[in-house]
Amino acid sequence: ATSQSYDYIVVGGGTSGLVLANRLSEDPGVSVLVVEAGSSVLNNVNVTDPNRYSMAFDTKLDWAYESVNQSFGGGPQVLRAGRALGGSSAINGMAYVRAQDVQVDAWEAIGNDGWTWETLFPYYLKSENFTIPAQTQVDAGATFESAEHGFQGPLRTAFPPMNATGELTPLINETLHALGIPWNRDINGGRMRGFSIYPWTLDGEIRHDAARAYYWPFANRANLHVLLDTRVNRILWAQPSNTTTDELTASGVEISLANTTSHIVAKKEVILSAGVLRSPALLELSGVGNPRILEAYGIPVMIDLPTVGENLQDQMNTLMTASGENIVTGGRTVTFATAQDIFGTTTASVAAALYAQLPAYAHQMATASHDAMPAEALLRLFHVQHDLIFKQNVPVAEIIFKPAGSDTTTINAGYWGLLPYARGSVHIASASPAANPSINPNYGLLPWDVQLQNAIARFIRSVFNTDPLRSFIKEETLPGLAAVPGNASDSVWTDWLKHNYASNFHPVGTTAMLPRSMGGVVNPHMKVYGTANVRVVDNSIHPFQLCGHPVSNLYAIAERAADLIKGDMKG
Ligand code: FAD
Fold it and tell me: Which of 61, 107, 116, 541 is the most exposed place for a label (fewest CB within 10 A)?
């Protein structure tokens, strides 16, 4: 049974939302409601079985958002996102890989007081319950540093079942070693460069998604309620009690269950955790956003905050393959490489050329946002990103080498540039809360993003051509030398890339945590500017892309957000 009023309403029972709901409801005197558009997937085998990755795609568990046509490569791209209790953590690839330390420090440097690796690190540990690898997994190559892991948190992380190294892992290890890239004992310690095997969000042989970790073991709390199959349409605002206060107060939310629409009261706060492609749309439907967009759909402007939905940053995912003479055995590995690894002796000139382009990039991206984002703010952010890449040596490339599986003699090298410069947007395309937003990631719009993706491809080719891997490989099969010859020019690689990239499913940034003057939507306590009691806590708040994979960071960020909210309430 649910009552009609709660202290906190969490919109979206996904990865971040369930962390908040759990922590806020630790106090039995505080009531929490989670409203989730999807259903429970506790016993859905396409969720629980880690070997069934992608089986949930295009089912009712997947929003399967489609972007607008992209100028790079033409057509639309599909951006997947989970629609279930557990959100995207219920359908994702389960990689548990954090950020590079200095990237989180950069959040503070650009104006978010209190956001550093050092302040976030305790929350990585608080969220995690790491399973020490068994001897068979150690024999198969699993390494870790105890000090980097938590052992008492709700989220189980573990190496996948590994019975033997197989051939591929040692082969790639030796080959990368020859190219100067070392084994990384634990990529989760804030230093990501190197080759490694990484933990998954896994409990034994069952996916540990946000619902299994943060909700089901606590589901009997009397003060924690979940409404499933229910959509939040918009935030409701209290009538201003006097005209002198300029902050808006949310009084609750409007929800739809089947064909019934009703209101629920929030006594303290409304927290949006609907994901990077939905939280900004909910703000716009509630009158918070760019007047140009709201007025087009007849939505009264409550808060003029034109950067809502801007700053969308996703990566381009591309696959190269090679065929071996024999059956390839082994597991899923990860390689994080820096600009120096990828660009070698040309790194300094690549850095200088990119630096010279940044004012033009900032200008182009400001124009793409219809000047919602100030060009000076973008330029400052772009300089910080340049510094991270070329001075602080944050990895720029991630490569997943693994046996293809289906085709037993094939090696896959899936890869993506970690820090593209393009910024896109997510905005409502209708006044109806049931409609999907219009999504434009602007993939490949800026030359650096394409240059980086091409340079990683060339690097992978050099890995294929270096011993001992070279003698193991029969031929490169994707793109293959017929499609992209050994001496191919940039434009040949670019043409191939245009038709061979997809979303990396790591979109971030659409309600960025930044000073308002720099285009921010939320403050360092994740409160939406101009509101007294509305926050966004999910992938939308990232000012920059973090290397690694989102959920490890999100669990920690949401844990810290819960403490900030509790602190604000006491204060
Ligand atoms: P979500 O977890 O997506 O939660 C948002 C929730 O809000 C959803 O449950 C949604 O149904 C609900 N919702 C939306 N709108 C409404 C509304 N109006 N009313 C009510 N509810 C609503 N990350 C990794 O770390 N490792 C990986 O291996 C990995 N692989 C991935 C593979 C795929 C296919 C995908 C899609 C993502 C992958 N990611 C991976 C990314 C990662 O899973 C997401 O970035 C992360 O889970 C997002 O968390 P979130 O809290 O921002 O939103």
Answer: 116
For domain 1-136+204-310+425-435+507-571, the CATH architecture is 3-Layer(bba) Sandwich (3.50)
Does residue 402 have its Cβ closer than 6 Å to ligand 1? no
Which residues, including other chains, have CB under 8 Å from residue 135's CB and lie 6 or more apart? none
Helix 168-178 crosses helix 447-464 at what angle (to 10 degrees)? Answer: 110
Among residues 438, 394, 354, 444, the alpha carbon closest in space to that of 544 is found at: 394
**Residue intervals in the chain for CATH 3.30.560.10:** 163-196+315-338+397-419+442-505
Q: How many CA atoms lie within 13 A of 339 on its CB side?
A: 24
The predicted complex's ipTM stands at: 1.00
Count the neighbouring beta carbons within 10 Å of the beta carbon of residue 229. 15
Q: How far apart are CA 78 and CA 101, in angstroms?
A: 31
Contacts (Cβ under 8 Å, ≥6 apart) of 529? 303, 305, 516, 520, 521, 522, 523
State in words which class domain 163-196+315-338+397-419+442-505 has: alpha beta
Q: Which among 208, 225, 506, 542 is annotated as catalytic?
A: 506
For ligand 1, is residue 505 a contact (CB within 6 Å)? yes
Specify the domain boundaries for CATH 3.50.50.60 within the chain: 1-136+204-310+425-435+507-571
DSSP 34-84: EE-SSB--TT-HHHH-GGGTTTTTTSTTB--EEPPPBTTTBS--EE--B-B
pLDDT for position 166: 84
Task: Evaluate: CB of 428 within 6 angstroms of ligand 1.
Answer: no
Does residue 41 have a pLDDT over 90? yes
Can you tell me which atom of ligand 1 is nearest the CA of 552? Answer: 25
